[in-house]
Design brief:
The structure holds two protein chains of two kinds. Chain A has helices at 12-22, 39-46, 62-65, 69-84, 95-100, 104-111, 129-144, 173-187, 201-205, 218-232, 244-258, 263-266, 273-278, 296-309, 325-334, 345-355, 364-373, 398-410, 416-424, 453-456, 479-486, 490-507, 514-524; strands spanning 2-4, 26-31, 55-57, 88-93, 117-119, 160-164, 190-195, 212-215, 236-237, 289-294, 313-319, 339-341, 359-362, 377-379, 469-470, 476-477, 511-512. By secondary structure, chain A is of the alpha/beta class. In chain A, the strands form four sheets. Chain A has a five-stranded parallel beta sheet with strand order 12-11-10-13-14, sandwiched between helices. In chain A, strands 3-2-4-5 form a four-stranded parallel beta sheet, with helices on both faces. In chain A, helix 15 links the parallel strand 11 and strand 12. Chain B is built from 18 helices and 14 strands. In chain B, the strands form three sheets. Chain B has a six-stranded parallel beta sheet with strand order 1-12-11-10-13-14, with helices on both faces. A four-stranded parallel beta sheet of chain B has the order 3-2-4-5, sandwiched between helices. In chain B, strands 7-6-8-9 form a four-stranded parallel beta sheet, sandwiched between helices. The chains are: A alpha/beta, B alpha/beta.
Chain lengths: 526, 431
């Protein structure tokens, strides 16, 4: 048993629901008790879908258990087939139905339903949502793909590609697709199929007709892509175009497989991010310490952007989906940090507190952790929240995605000019430390209060006459050094205090005076 | 009970006999399971912690239903069963001990721990009563450990609260069985509403009043033959039986929604406690008038409008009565997961004969009826609201009726407003 207050991923059948809901003409028959229908609201409320997810729940009760839950399943299957007339039906069990072992696959096979059936075995007590989505999509492709489909000769036609991975409830999938379509259009590559989002079972049968695949979301699309590679000899583009250089690499990779000239797509002049990053106001971004956590694909992409395109320093990197831990480990090596592979948000909180980053890039959970700790934060990955479905276009992928990312990550930070002004005017009565930067005053607490042992010692108001303050690790601050510390802007003060105390401890100094403070500053100068 | 007018018995049976038979349906239910009650129960009982013994689905349900609330460290969690628990590689009872020990070490503020059964724990017959007893002995005086089931195979949404409160009943002290009558309010109410009721009872002249659940689960009120109880919520069948098994008597009344419902509810207690009618009337006159004035704000918007309820919280019948009686709405279909004929007898009497009552659910057929009936307002769960809106139906989220303070005189206006707002919004919008 695992004690859990909150989980990054739902159970695997929710992943299957994300696939079914993304598609047209698909229906999912889920052997499940009442209450499992809560998952519908993820789609209707978070994503604001105007349709119910195409899911029928068999809704068995305790009193059915001794009797005939299998019969209930078959009735529900027949009703759903008649009412919704789907082109194909996914059948499976939720966690409870898995325990009663009714064998949905066998039951539906015996029924001779009027449409193809895709039986799903999603082990609820071992696996999670992303895996469930990937496995469902793979089974759908495997079951439905017409193996006799052949690719037409390349001469005299434009190259054809499948986009694999976008689903319902995906983090910015809707908007990413718009950007990918733009790129492919500029390259003269036609989209044969986008799946699962928007695809019908009929469409899936023809999946083999494309020249190659693009795996946009490996967590969901890679399993199917590997099968398509084997079955139809379709190569796959696996570079995920998040960030400027990744987008360029993606374009080059697509162009090579499609045998087209990449120039037109590479020359897209909507890419503002490189200049925004080079302009002088961005100087202050240099070396900002950033902590990154999310699904592996988005976390790895974020680390690359942070390091190469914004000049941040990656001080923490991790993911919650163990299946892709290898990618995180490889990336962590590049930035010389310890990879954090965990689905326990409290472990993530501890890691954030330990490294005291200047910016947190994470999921909605890290946003809340950062808010509590008074740290700037931006969201880069699912699990999704109603805020992750903005009304406006807000992609992560492509050049426009990079523009969006620049804004989203940089705005929570104190802006370059503002940083100078804070230092210049910090003693103004109107400009007290408590005011905080204007643009996130509504979100951030005034101070990182009582969040860590080192910060909890910090008094709220200046108190110059106060006796020496005791630091976390038995060192003592002189009143003079304490006053000097107060003159440091509040948003770096916590770090300065911590660094100075660590430095003093390393040096075996028990009292922190002015000299220790400035010795430490020199020691940590970068 | 002899002070009460003889309205409940045969009259109500007659009323329900004249009505078209209740439509009983079996099929897909679009409702939450009983675990969801933890979201309001943990806020009500501030020294209690709820540990669901279940699957990742249970944890996901709780965080999805609780929304942002979950980001503060809440007083509930899930012990997620894993493959090794099921495959017999470890003893599930040992695992539970380990998890509880870890939890209680981290949260020394917990005085009552509820082990909450789920669908998977029920199916594998994990004996939580045994676990509660064993752990209870281990933590002896420091933490009380109770158990109940909030599983979807046994409980629908608010029935989770029923099961939870029923598990508290054996813990209630006996008090003095031969002493003065005591009043017990049963059903969790927001603190502000509970305080309003307590003030009113005090002014009315009923001095010995307790509430179940108590704000501190360690501070339960007395229970015995001296107890007269008023249900504040219509979904507490099991709790009521447990109370009566210990000698308590239910005061039959309307539920305290709207000016009329609240008056009748308070009056049932006043009569039982021998309070002078004039005095009672003088105490409630002010708040009752205030409630009527507040309700009046929504009357123009709601009068004559047709409303359908999809089954959700069992609050449907009393709310339909309130909307019909005090705001002139016409209930088309009143769906409820479970219809308690006795507890709802007085409510049912007041419903217009034209209202169609349905119990249980077959969601697809029910939606067909909504499309056919074309009500002006449909009360439904969050999974159905936006899809119905997209089809052109105005909807009211049923869950808000459970999470918002809606009982009593002072909330009557807010309750009416909850139904008026979706309609007013439609009138306002020009996009």
């Amino acid at each position: 048993m695992q004690l859990s207050v909150w989980t990054y991923e739902g159970p695997p059948h929710v992943g299957a629901m994300r696939v079914a809901t993304a598609m047209e003409g698909m229906h999912y028959l889920l052997h499940a008790p009442q209450g499992d229908t809560y998952a519908d609201l993820l789609f209707t409320m978070i994503e604001r879908r105007g349709k119910r997810p195409p899911v029928t729940y068999t809704t068995f009760e305790a009193r059915d258990l001794g009797k005939d839950t299998a019969h209930l399943f078959q009735d529900a299957a027949r009703d759903a087939a008649a009412r919704f007339q789907p082109q194909a039906m996914m059948v499976g069990a939720s966690c409870t139905a898995e325990l009663i072992q009714d064998d949905p696959a066998g039951l539906s096979e015996a029924m001779d339903l009027p449409c193809p059936v895709i039986p799903l075995e999603l082990p609820s007590y071992q696996r999670k949502e992303n895996w469930g989505a990937a496995e469902s999509f793979y089974q759908i492709v495997r079951t439905l793909a017409d193996r006799k489909v052949e690719r037409a000769p390349r001469e005299g036609r434009r190259p054809l590609v499948n986009l694999l991975g976008p689903t319902a409830l995906g983090f910015r999938h809707r908007d990413d697709l718009v950007e990918i379509r733009k790129i492919l259009d500029a390259l003269g590559v036609d989209i044969h199929l986008e799946a699962p989002l928007g695809a019908s079972p009929q469409d899936i049968t023809q999946i083999g007709a494309a020249d190659f695949n693009i795996v946009l979301y490996p967590e969901i699309g890679d399993e199917a892509a590997r099968w398509l590679e084997r079955e139809f000899g379709q190569p796959a583009v696996r570079t995920v175009p998040i960030g400027v250089s990744a987008t360029r690499a993606f374009i080059a990779e697509v162009a090579e497989l499609a045998e087209v000239d990449p120039t037109s797509a590479l020359g897209d002049d909507s890419a503002r991010m490189p200049w925004w990053s080079r302009s002088v106001d961005s100087n202050y971004l240099t070396g900002k310490r950033v902590f990154i956590f999310g699904d592996a694909t988005h976390a790895v992409a974020a680390a690359k952007i942070a390091h190469e395109e914004l000049g941040f320093k990656v001080c923490g990197l991790g993911c919650y989906n163990r299946e892709f831990a290898r990618d995180i480990r490889a990336a962590a090596k590049l930035y010389d940090v310890e990879p954090l592979i965990t689905d326990d948000h409290m472990a993530v909180e501890d890691a954030i507190m330990a490294v005291q980053p200047e910016l947190v890039l994470g999921t909605q959970m890290e946003r809340h952790i950062a808010k509590r700790l008074g740290m700037p934060c931006a969201v880069i990955s699912s699990p999704v929240h109603v805020q992750d479905f903005p009304a406006r276009h807000s992609p992560q992928m492509g050049f426009e995605g990079a523009n969006v990312i620049f804004d989203t990550w940089v705005h929570p930070l104190v802006m370059g000019l503002e940083e100078h002004l804070l230092t210049m005017f910090r003693d103004d009565f109107e400009f007290s430390d408590d005011a905080g930067p204007s643009h996130h005053a509504a979100h951030a607490p005034k101070m990182p209060q009582a969040s860590t042992p080192t910060q909890s010692a910090e008094p709220e108001a200046p108190a110059p006459t106060i006796a020496p303050v005791e630091a976390a690790n038995d060192t003592i601050w002189t009143a003079e050094a304490e006053r000097e510390l107060k003159k440091i802007p509040f948003f770096v003060r916590g770090k300065a205090r911590r660094n100075t105390e660590n430095f003093a401890a390393d040096q075996g100094r028990f009292e922190i005076d002015l000299d220790t403070l400035y010795d430490a500053k020199a020691h940590y100068a970068r | 009970m002899n002070a009460l007018p003889p309205a409940s018995g045969c009259a109500s049976e007659l009323a329900t006999l004249e009505r078209a038979p209740i439509l009983r349906e079996r099929g897909q239910r679009e409702v939450f399971c009983g675990l969801t009650g933890i979201i309001w129960l943990h806020r009500k009982m501030q020294d209690a912690f709820f540990l669901v013994v279940g699957s990742r689905t249970c944890a996901h349900l709780l965080q999805s239903a609780a929304g942002v609330m979950i980001f503060a460290e809440p007083r509930f969690a899930t012990a997620i069963m894993e493959e090794r628990d099921l495959a017999g590689m470890v003893d599930a009872q040992d695992e539970l001990d380990r998890v509880v020990t870890k939890l209680l070490a981290r949260r020394p503020d917990i005085k009552t721990l509820f082990l909450v059964g789920s669908c998977p724990s029920e199916v594998i017959k994990l004996d939580l009563a045994k676990a509660a007893e064993r752990l209870g002995t281990k933590y002896n005086s420091s933490v009380r450990i109770l158990n109940y089931s909030g599983s979807g195979i046994e409980t629908t949404f608010t029935q989770g609260e029923d099961a939870c409160l029923a598990s508290l009943v054996p813990e209630m002290p006996a008090g003095d069985p031969n002493g003065e009558k005591e009043l017990l309010i049963v059903g969790s109410l927001p603190d502000i509403v509970e305080d309003q009721f307590m003030r009113l009872f005090d002014q009315i002249g009923i001095k010995r009043v307790g509430a179940l659940p108590a704000r501190q689960a360690s501070d339960l009120p007395n229970l015995g033959p001296q107890t007269r109880y008023l249900l504040a919520q219509p979904f507490l069948a099991e709790t009521a039986m447990a109370l009566e098994a210990r000698g308590a008597q239910r005061l039959d009344a309307l539920f305290p929604f709207g000016a009329e419902g609240t008056t009748a509810w308070l009056q049932a207690a006043a009569r039982e406690f021998g309070i002078d009618e004039m005095h009672f009337n003088s105490v409630i006159a002010g708040p009752r008038e205030r409630a009527k004035r507040a309700i009046e704000h929504s009357a123009a918007q709601l009068n004559g409008k047709r409303i359908s309820f999809l089954p959700d919280s069992q609050l449907e019948v009393p709310l339909a009565r309130f909307l019909n009686q005090e705001l002139g709405m016409e209930p088309v279909e009143i769906g409820t997961p479970y219809l308690h004929r006795t507890h709802l007898a007085r409510e049912l009497e007041l419903l217009p004969q034209s209202a169609r009552l349905s119990e249980g659910q077959h969601v697809d057929r029910q939606l067909d009826r909504v499309r056919e009936d074309k009500p002006d307002l449909t009360v439904c769960g969050l999974g159905l609201a936006n899809p119905l809106e997209a089809e052109g139906f105005a909807t009211k989220w049923a869950i808000e009726l459970v999470f918002s303070p809606i009982h009593g005189f002072e909330q009557a206006g807010d309750l009416a407003e909850l139904f008026a707002r979706p309609l007013r919004r439609r009138d306002v919008l020009r996009v």
